[in-house]
Design a protein that fits this description.
Elements (H helix, E strand, L loop, with lengths): L7 H19 L3 E5 L5 H10 L4 E5 L13 H13 L8 H12 L12 E4 L5 E2 L7 H7 L4 E3 L2 E3 L8 H11 L10 H4 L20 E3 L4 E4 H4 L2 H13 L1 H4 L4 H12 L5 E3 L5 E3 L2 E3 L4 H5 L19 H8 L12
Parallel strand pairs: 1-2, 5-9
Antiparallel strand pairs: 3-8, 4-10, 5-8, 6-7, 10-11
Helix pairs in contact: 1-2, 4-11, 6-9
Length: 326
């Protein structure tokens, strides 16, 4: 969890949710990261609520600040432009630091380095269903690398040059493009690009996996493909000049550098991150009492959701659990 001291109440809400629904049975450790030292109050309360070990890490200032090679005047101009267009977080430098950190640095933190897998939990989220199996074991045993719950469209004004930059990177590094990748999730009417191809046509449709929930293999972010991709994007400056989010960056990397079969939709997880929520649709999850949420009011069928597109291109259905999705 990337969290501030001022978000203690929201952090405890999320921890309570995860502990009650899942972790009290598995007792996995919690890791908290902050760009300022954690207060004694934060440490005491979060440690008291967690069933497993707790780790507290301080983010290096260089990883939460504007690099020397970035034009600060250009940042100000871009922020002013976004504020004038009412883009959410358009005028926030802190938000840009957070997106850059989640894109390129959290997995390098010394505390995180000891782990192979992670479940990203945001402050102030809710989980509606008991998690009865271990998702880390499921991912590992089934060859999965990246797992998500919701998918949606990104704001075009925040990533206007991200797709062109991504295509440029792939032209320079065609060896990283996976066979049977997910290009057809990101580009309408596209044939999946094959390993070794240097070019792919089409415009980005803005679909991405919503990264406030992720269960993934940290070794993917540590791989040469992703490391080179992040370094390339970082030098482009779009994290600051625009407002590139870690969600589209993670999504494009996973979708292009991994085979489609390595990406998993957790259809059995009920989850809410304001303002959106999703609820498993199968009868068993509700009759058994495993889930408690409104099936008739959830994000899967929202016009802003990209999940139906993922089901179509990945050959998955709306099944509730792992067996129903493969």
């Amino acid at each position: 969890m990337l969290v501030r001291n001022s978000e203690l109440r929201e952090a405890l809400d999320s921890i309570r949710n995860v502990e009650d629904r899942f972790n009290r049975r598995f007792r996995y450790p919690w890791t908290f990261l902050n760009d300022e030292p954690f207060t004694e109050e934060f440490v005491n309360y979060t440690t008291g609520m967690a069933s497993g070990k707790t780790n507290y890490g301080l983010i290096e200032p260089a990883q939460w600040s504007v690099p020397d090679y970035i034009d600060k005047k250009k940042i100000e101009e871009g922020m002013e432009n976004m504020v004038s267009k009412n883009v959410i977080y358009g005028g926030s430098l802190s938000y840009r630091n957070m997106c850059r950190y989640n894109s390129g640095f959290f997995y390098r933190h010394p505390i995180v380095n000891q782990y192979r897998w992670y479940w990203r939990v945001e402050p102030g989220v809710q989980f509606y269903c008991d998690q009865l199996y271990d998702p880390f074991s499921f991912m590992r045993e089934n060859g999965k690398v990246y797992g998500f719950v919701m998918a949606m469209y990104e704001y075009l004004l925040t990533i206007e040059t991200l797709w062109d930059s991504t295509k440029e990177f792939v032209r320079n590094h065609p060896q990283y493009l996976a066979a049977n990748n997910s290009l057809d999730f990101f580009v309408d009417n596209s044939e999946p690009s094959k390993e070794g191809d240097k070019e792919f046509d089409g415009d980005y449709n803005l679909c991405h996996f919503w990264s406030n929930f992720e269960i993934a293999d940290l070794d993917f972010w540590r791989s040469p493909a992703y490391s080179d991709y992040f370094d390339f994007l970082d030098r482009k400056g779009g994290f600051f000049y625009e407002r590139w989010g870690d969600a589209p960056v993670h999504s494009l990397a996973a979708g292009l550098f991994l085979p489609k079969s390595a990406i998993h939709h957790f259809g059995d997880i009920g989850y809410r991150h304001p303002p959106y929520a999703r609820c498993p649709q199968d009868e068993e999850s509700h009759q058994s009492g495993r889930c408690y949420c409104a099936r008739d009011a959830h994000f899967d069928d929202d016009g802003y959701s990209c999940l139906p597109r993922w089901w179509n291109v990945a050959g998955m259905n709306r099944g509730a659990g792992p067996k129903g999705q493969h």
